[in-house]
Amino acid sequence: MKKRLLLVIPFVLAAQTASAQNCALLSGCAKKVCELESKLSAVSEPHAVARIQAALTETKANCTDEKVATEHTAHDTEHQMKVDKKIAEAKEDIAEAEMKKQKAKAEGKAEKVMKYQHKIEEKQLKIKHLQSE
Predict the structure, then answer these.
(1) Cα–Cα–Cα angle for 29, 75, 84, nearest 5°?
(2) How far apart are CA 89 and CA 130, in angstroms?
(3) Measured between alpha carbons, how far is 69 from 35 in angstroms, rounded to an integer?
(4) 104: pLDDT confidence band, cut at 50, 70 and 90?
(5) For labelling alongside 69, which of 24, 38, 107, 116 has CA 20 to 30 A away?
(6) What is the per-residue pLDDT across 76-93, written as a single tens digit (0 to 9) for each?
(7) DSSP string, 37-79
(8) For residue 21, what pLDDT is reported?
């Protein structure tokens, strides 16, 4: 029995992966419906099935490609705002570390100068990474 189950699992996972890839080729409401149907076939817990079926029914009844595009735009805007906030925080951290570095330099504390320089470089890398997203 265990051997049969172990043989079936890869096929189930492959089918789920294939259906997820097929959904990626779609857009708008068709993509949402496809993703919900994929989730529905992947779960067995009764409450989860009921929630996904309700979402699927709701999506089929009320989804429009314009709504999906609006949601996508809102999500992108929210994401960009979060990125901008993280960049601003990193710049504040750089300014603070720069001040501490200058103070350490004036006091002749080479180790502290290096510590703050590393912190500055780390934050600069974080900013570059955030900007490239």
Answers:
(1) 160
(2) 12
(3) 16
(4) very high
(5) 38
(6) 999 999 999 999 999 999
(7) HHHHHH---HHHHHHHHHHHHHHHHH--HHHHHHHHHHHHHHH
(8) 62
HSE, side-chain direction, 13 A CA sphere, residue 31:
11
pLDDT interval class at 19 (50, 70, 90):
low
Q: How far apart are CA 43 and CA 101, in angstroms?
A: 55
Instruction: Examine the pLDDT at 99 and tell me if it is beyond 80.
Output: yes
Structure tokens, 29: 């409401």
One-letter amino acid of 114? M
Give dist(CA 32, CA 69) in Å, integer: 12
Asked if 35 contacts 23 with a C-beta cutoff of 8 angstroms, the reply is: yes
Model pTM score = 0.57
pLDDT for 7 equals 47
28 in Cβ contact with 65 (< 8 Å): yes
Which amino acid type is present at position 130? L
